[in-house]
Amino acid sequence: MKKIIVVIISALLFLSGIISITGNKAYACSCAGGSTKERLERSSVVFEGEVIKKGGTKQSQFHGLREYTFKVNTVWKGNQSNKVTIYAFDGNEASCGIGFKKGESYLVFSYHDEELLQTNYCSGNLPISEAENIIKELGSGTTIIHSDLESSSKDWMIYFPVVIAAVIIISVTIIRFWKYKKKKFL
User: Fold this and answer.
1) CA-wise closest residue to 48 among 98, 90, 104
2) What is the total count of domains within the chain?
3) Segment (H or E) for 152
4) How much is the pLDDT for 23?
5) Measured on CA atoms in the order 38, 42, 47, 52, is the torsion positive or negative?
6) Is 123 found in the same domain as 167?
7) How many CB atoms are located within 10 Å of the residue 117 CB?
8) Three-state DSSP state, 167
9) Which CATH number characterizes residue 88's domain?
10) Which stretches are transmembrane (predicted)?
11) What is the mean pLDDT of the chain?
12) Rounded distance, CA 30 to CA 27, Å?
């Protein structure tokens, strides 16, 4: 009888352990790999650029996604604008997450998912300092021209309200002075 009770208790402890373990979500990253050509074919947008903004996060079906904005220098596939915003799996490599550092340049392979441009650890992204061989395989991309006019026009917009306020103040002062002189001579 004691053996039966010990077996039942052991079985219950074993089953409760399995149930508690399987109740937690666990995702492991398993990358398919592939050649540079295959990564290029799987991607919607491939570019080299510098991270200019690290934004907030949003939740997708399986992962948290962190927003990154890049100043694009060269494009091999997809959108050829001078800035691109992508969403990267937020987390470590074990969960296919990848983090980009603001001010650093990367070769980025990204794809469209859930109406967002996304990337992850398995996409094949590399710091530009480690991407020389991949860039040779990709061949010459399209170089994006960044004009100084873009930044100078934005700088002007910062001062625009101040200039308008100064013009209004000067105009009001001149009108009052003119009215004062007119009254004085009448």
Assistant:
1) 104
2) 2
3) helix 148-185
4) 44
5) negative
6) no
7) 19
8) helix
9) 2.40.50.120
10) 156-178
11) 81
12) 9
DSSP structure class, residue 121: G
Residues 138 and 182 in one domain: no
Domain membership flag for residue 12: no
- Domain containing 62 equals 36-143
Check whether residue 106 and residue 40 sit in a common domain. yes
Are 138 and 153 within one domain? no
The answer on 62 and 123 residing in a single domain is: yes
Residue 73: strand, helix, or coil: strand
What is the per-residue pLDDT across 67-106, written as a single tens digit (0 to 9) for each?
999 999 999 999 888 999 999 988 777 778 889 999 999 9
First-to-last C-alpha distance (Å) of the chain: 124
- Tell whether the model's pLDDT for residue 22 goes beyond 50: no
Q: Which ranges constitute the DSSP H helices of 34-147? A: 36-42, 132-138
pTM score, two decimals?
0.64
Q: Over the Cα atoms of the chain, what is R_g?
A: 30
Angle at the Cα of 20 from the Cα atoms of 15 and 24, rounded to 5 degrees: 140
Q: Is residue 112 part of a domain?
A: yes
Q: How many CB atoms lie within 10 A of CB 63?
A: 20
